[in-house]
């Protein structure tokens, strides 16, 4: 077991390399820790193993259980009432929601108390107003509600998230989310992130769990076997119990995302100010400057958490500076 503590200087030295590492506007914030871990690993070996794919193949993401539960609960309330409740929620400004719901933070883990409850309320409103499950899941995982409003003169292209396939029933919701991620999120984000970060430091990363035989096997497992007591990846956990102590298996799931919300208000604030300045955005004519300025002001003034949306803009701007 090896630990790497990332300092502010490590971050600032790593950031300018991202356009060259990914060669496109890639904006998963875990790209930075993935690159740093790849650097660390390359000091010891030339080939490494990655556990990517387990969550998508064996229902490991917490959002799967949450999304299924919320969607099924939604169906008990008429759509017209859900849309009305969503409209009322959107009318109340985010800072007001933060004040009204502030008491709830006492029940949050310390690491979560910086999250904007107002943003969560607005997100909830958009979810309950969804007409279909596909629309619901797309809203759940999207950074921008309507990208065509952000990018001037554009329309959002079709993707696996918006293509309608054969009808499915409520019992197939979990399987549908997993399929969407298998076809979209896994290859276009996770695998791209790891492959380019590792190859940038001449490290080969292999992913045994994505062997075609494992994928074929996972597709035949009933979902009742994947999820037990609200936790996914049950078959993998049972296998691990033969070799690893329970204390290392039965732990809370921990993501690999970077704390960009804090970074953008701290060491990266000047960098972001330059890339997102209204004068620059207007001059370049790619993004709606009012929308960008509104998001940036909300975030840097601590009136909402817009870090994920802003990171996608910043990675594009950083890439454009390097290549265009």
Give me the secondary-structure topology:
Blueprint (H helix, E strand, L loop, with lengths): L7 H7 L3 H5 L8 H12 L4 E3 L4 H4 L4 H13 L4 H13 L2 H7 L16 H12 L4 H9 L5 H4 L22 H11 L1 H15 L4 E3 L5 H8 L3 H4 L7 H7 L5 H4 L10 H6 L3 H7 L2 H7 L4 H12 L6 H17 L1
Got a strand count? 2
The percent range for helix content is 55-70%
Shape: globular
Uncertain runs are 110-114
State mean pLDDT (0 to 100 scale). Answer: 88
Compute the number of helices. 21
Largest sheet: 2 strands, parallel
Report the end-to-end length measured between terminal Cα atoms: 42 Å
Query: Strand order within the widest sheet?
Result: 1-2
Walk me through what this model shows.
- The chain has 324 residues and is mainly α.
- The protein contains 21 helices and 2 strands.
- It has a two-stranded parallel sheet with strand order 1-2.
- Helix 3 crosses helix 12, helix 6 runs antiparallel to helix 8 and helix 11 runs parallel beside helix 12.
Give structural attributes.
mainly alpha; 324 residues; 57% helix; two-stranded parallel sheet
Question: How would you summarize this macromolecular structure in one to three sentences?
Answer:
This protein has 324 residues and is mainly α. The chain has 21 helices and 2 strands.
